[in-house]
Write a structure and sequence with these properties.
Helix content is 36%, strand content 7%. The chain contains five helices and two strands, in the order αβααβαα. The longest helix has 14 residues. Bound molecules: zinc ion (2 copies). One zinc ion binds next to loops.
Length: 113
């Protein structure tokens, strides 16, 4: 079974995931403290999220809240240095938090592009 990278080029995805040692790099941006796993999310590529979540497929996704609000094809063009490995649930929650914090003017500007 192969795992397809969800966004960006496969080599970029691989570089980001390798750097993260195939483990979600969230350290609380999603709103959880991840205290049980040393302050960092314990989800690893191919790990098990549970009955509802299925298998973990890590994303190479932006680390900065402003970058999280980019459209998918824009964030796919970011360099590896601005990306981190995220599990789906952490990134979803972190992005929701980033969206909530963004000033409305900034959001409007994004949608104009
Ligand atoms: Zn995570
Ligand atoms: Zn998290």
């Amino acid at each position: 079974m192969t795992t397809r990278p969800p966004l960006g080029s496969p080599s970029l995805w691989q570089a980001v995931i390798d750097r993260a040692e195939a483990r979600c790099q969230c350290s609380g941006a999603c709103g959880k403290t991840h205290a049980k796993s040393g302050g960092r999310c314990e989800h690893t590529q191919g790990g098990w999220l549970g009955k509802h979540g299925g298998t973990v497929r890590l994303l190479a996704a932006p680390t900065a809240p402003a970058d999280m609000l980019l459209l998918a094809h824009e964030s796919a063009a970011l360099p590896a240095a601005r990306l981190a490995a995220w599990c789906g649930p952490c990134f979803d929650h972190a992005r929701t938090a980033a969206r909530r914090k963004a000033p409305p003017a900034e959001l409007d500007a994004l949608f104009d592009i």
